[in-house]
Design a protein that fits this description.
single chain; 187 residues; alpha+beta; 4 helices; 8 strands
């Protein structure tokens, strides 16, 4: 074999080995990107403590029954901020069974958009006037939002989950069920 033929054969071997390793490298890169995208998407959520919640189902139902027996209800109002970087104002009016304001409560909540259930905002409300509790919240995106409230006071503990539809116009509507929200979005 001549030196030229041997050089050509060596070059061919290196070329084919390079092609094979390049294809393997591209495959590893694509797999890494796919794993990153699959695990970093906030619309896919693993609910923390799901197993423990399932085990304590009876206790949760008892707590909810005690809350319901108080006869309290909440009225939620929302003021969308004019700017994208500003927070909107969410206000809760707590009323007892007689329609009187419930005062001196610690009101906390969790708020999330259904399309981004991984982005949960913990909210602490401050009493602004008797029975009215307000907080600034980072709500800008239109769509279906869920608010879980817990209000603890001397008269008892109240908990409630509500869903709201935020329209692009800033209108904030309470939704009774998910199917109601879908029909309202289509309108």
């Amino acid at each position: 074999m001549s030196d030229t033929e041997q050089s050509a054969e060596t070059l061919a071997r290196w070329t084919w080995c390079g092609v094979i390793f390049s294809l393997l490298g591209v495959q590893i890169l694509i797999s890494g990107v796919a794993v990153f995208l699959a695990t970093s998407d906030p619309s896919n959520v693993i609910v923390e403590g799901y197993y423990e919640q399932a085990l304590s189902w009876d206790e949760q139902r008892l707590t909810q029954a005690k809350s319901d027996s108080l006869g309290w209800n909440s009225q939620v109002t929302f003021e969308k901020s004019p700017g994208l970087l500003e927070k909107s104002r969410l206000e809760i009016a707590l009323l007892d069974a007689n329609g009187q304001p419930v005062t001196a409560c610690q009101v906390e909540g969790e708020l999330f958009h259904h399309a981004r259930a991984g982005d949960v905002f913990k909210v602490r409300f401050v009493e602004t006037r008797p029975g009215h509790y307000a907080a600034l919240v980072p709500i800008q995106q239109a769509g279906l939002w869920e608010l879980s409230l817990v209000a603890a006071g001397t008269a008892g503990s109240f908990q409630e989950k509500q869903q709201f539809l935020l329209k692009n116009s800033g209108e904030f509507q309470k939704v009774e069920s998910v199917s109601d929200s879908i029909s309202k979005v289509k309108k």
